[in-house]
Amino acid sequence: MTHTLRTFFPYVFPFLFVLAMLPVFQFSELPKADFTFTNGTEIESLDSAHVSGAPEGRIIDAMFEGLYRKLPDPEDPNKMLPVPAMATGYELSEDQRTYTFTIRKDAKWSDGSPVTAHDWVFSWQRFLHPETASKYSYQLWYLKNAQRYTGRKIEVGDRVEIERDDRPNPAQTYPRGTMLAGVVKAQEQLGTEDDPIYVYEVQLVAEQAGQPQWDQPGETQRFVMIPRFDERKHAEHAANLVRQVLPHFSEVGVYAEDDHTLVVTLENPTPYFLELVSFYPLYPVNQACVERHGYPDWTKTENVVNNGPYNMEFRRIRDRIRLRKNPEYWNSGEVSLEVIDALAVQSETTTLNMYMNGQVDWGTTVPTSIIPELIERDQEKLNQPGREKEQPDMRIEPMLTVYFYRVNTTKPPLDDARVRRALNLAIDKRAIVEFVTKAGQVPALGLVPPGLAKYEQQVSGDFNPEEARRLLAEAGFPGGKGMPRIRLVYNTLDAHRDIAEVIQQQWKRHLQVDAELVNQEWAMYLKRMTDLDFDVIRAGWIGDYPDPNTFLDMFVTDGENNQTGWSNAEYDQLIEEAMSESDEEKRMEMLEKAERILLEEMPILPIYFYVSQNIVRPYVKNFYPNLQDLHPLHILEIDEAQRDFILKAEGVR
Amino acid sequence: MIEFLVKRFFWLLLTLWIVYTFSFFLMWKVAPEGANLSERKFPPEIQANLDRYYGLDKPLIERYFLQFGKALTLDFGPSMKLMDLHSSQLIRQGLPISISLGALALSFAMLLGFSTGIVSALWRQSLLDVGFRLLATLGIAVPNFVLAGFAIILFVFILKWFPAAGWGRPIDLVLPALCLAAPFAAYIARLTRTGMLEVLGQDYIRTAYAKGLMPRVVVLRHAFRGAILPVVSYLGPATAGILTGSLVLERIFFIPGLGTHFIEAITQKDHPVSLAVVMIYTLLLFTMNTLVDLSYGLIDPRVKLNK
Fold first, then answer.
1. Among A89, A368, A612, B173, which is least packed by CB within 10 angstroms?
2. ipTM of the complex in this document
3. Contacts of A30 in chain B (CB under 8 A)
4. Quick check: B50 and A44 CB within 8 A?
5. DSSP character string of B213-244
6. Is the pTM of this model over 0.90?
């Protein structure tokens, strides 16, 4: 036997190779998409309740649609405007707290069923439900009582909804078990901090047609909710055990008056509420689909039901998502591209290679170091015959994102605002964007990026070493004498290091202040930031919506993202009051004043505002740069003649 | 031989268990939040809900036993980063791609390695020999991702033979497979050359020539067989090396293989996926080494497995 095996041995390897190669030869040639773009990382989820990133946003925005949708303003296409989408319009109450949306009658889900107001009630309840664990649920906390719902905040006398422990599938939040409604008469918390047991005495109320009759109180019952239920440990409570006790959802500010009328009540007048409803986390999901398949199975290609301009044809992990035009979409006549490929290309160099080789039409990022050359390339192509008026490929535009340093204001000498201001004035930000970042970034003199409507940009002092030295001397450190070393913490990335080194030099040169650069791996960097274990630490912030509030409310006392130890009562009050101010002009004035306080006290050192770095073939039409770097796919068009011309001119394909 | 295999199987189980335990604690100790780590701090209500959703509110040791039990049934849990997907889906899509790429690369490596090795040995000290040896040294010295950069400039942008990156057509595989194969081809060439030189001087080769056999038959039938023994022992680690070594290349050439998933899982702290891939790599390495040990006995009768 050994002998025969030995004879065959030389053929074993080739055979194994042929076997392993089989998958390759099974490939069928994929028909080319009409439009291909690089979408950055693989999307984390298709479920709008679970994601918070830009790549996910692009896909969800193509597959789903909210009440409103942001599209380029016809008058100034570089501005984005919320326009009616699933809703045909809205009415705003006098106190600016109640929005009544009219849902489009011809709107359909991809399975043919109509889109109704109830879809939002379900989707937003699911979005806010604590068990959904949505990272972005605070985007909906503008609704009345929404924060209480997510946080399970229940007081005696509150109306609550009780879910019995009889879910069809205990691992899924939806479909829910039997629901009861009642009023809390007493509550207590037993067990330990780690293993709490919540006990409620609830007076139940009768229900008619699914509506609780609050004026018909019934018997009082005891209910026990145990997040970490263990049959042996909690046997005594098993009889009264319920799955979930939450504030009653009818208390939350959203309900469907009828199939086509959605009424939304807010805590405060929120002038940017339309921006929020046109933001993808607030898009609806299909109740039947979610309840039939559960999460995450409902997001599978074969299961997903959506209401946007595109359907998902297939998804290959970390390769591509192929989108195909949705014939059920209400406005599908206006959608020009039939098939779109979203490639999950991580490497910027690969993105550029594929772009130059004609494999993609739009790259969302390019390697920063090569941007000057790409800009030059755009200049050169204008000299070629027939291309004199071509748009540039490289589209660099300011974005709603700021790069800054946080200062630890709890420790001397940085607890002195004069020292912080001196450090700020000694940084030559113009030099940083010109010689270090080099991609057209804008030096930041304040926290809020430029370009926000009605908001006047606030500025701290520009680079001024003399004034910086004077301030430092005033604070008791003339010529930097006696000033301890500053620990400047950043996370591992060459770009961060380069900037930190320049700032280190500038502080040394202009103030004779020494800084020690501390490079930290991501997890450690975040930990040091939370623990305030730094003197100065790198940070960045992307605006969630185009309003200064998304930047300024970060620095209220003890805000989750404050992380500087800074606290100012007047600032807190201004932010708080601005929140409920219905006069847009007054609100902006308050926010401007708040930013002035922030810049006077300087708990942060703003460095620069980011720019978007899209590279787009000029034959792609309706692509406009904008502050939030949003580029709806369904309005894009391709000029075929120009495409053939350009690709030929560049010798591609 | 059966006894050998049984013994190896037990060692395999032990190795897998140790690797699993070690990796599990290392990963969760170094980055306790896993992929939930974020620059953006969430309000405490949301943070608590997230921790509960991923079971991070339980003590580590309890989670170890829970997840080890599941891992025994090949269930490494859902991905923490790609939340819609289960780690087994990633493996199912990624592994065949990496294996195809690896198999093609290994074929290239053997084809190039054997042929240049034999030529080098037959025409020793000729210009060809020196040239091949120089190339081989370069191939070993230059990392494959550097080679990839040069290959892209040459074959994609100057010659326009291959696409820059991507996956889906057989032609997409050629360039990455060549880059992946280069160092292995170089090594095989050197091993083959040394082996051939040694064998060519032996008595049985002279006998074969004396019998009047054609030089081609002597070289391919008699000398080559004897010469590839060192190469075979190298093939085990080489196969494992090729399968696990495609990490960076997969990223450069945008190939959605296991290597890409592994790199992403590690940088994104997606522990369930990292663990699953580590276990697959362990299994591959172990199996390949066992196969090589087995093949010794088949090629060279002097090797006894049970000793």
1. A89
2. 0.84
3. 168-169
4. no
5. --HHHIIIIIIHHHHTHHHHHHHHHHHHHHHH
6. no
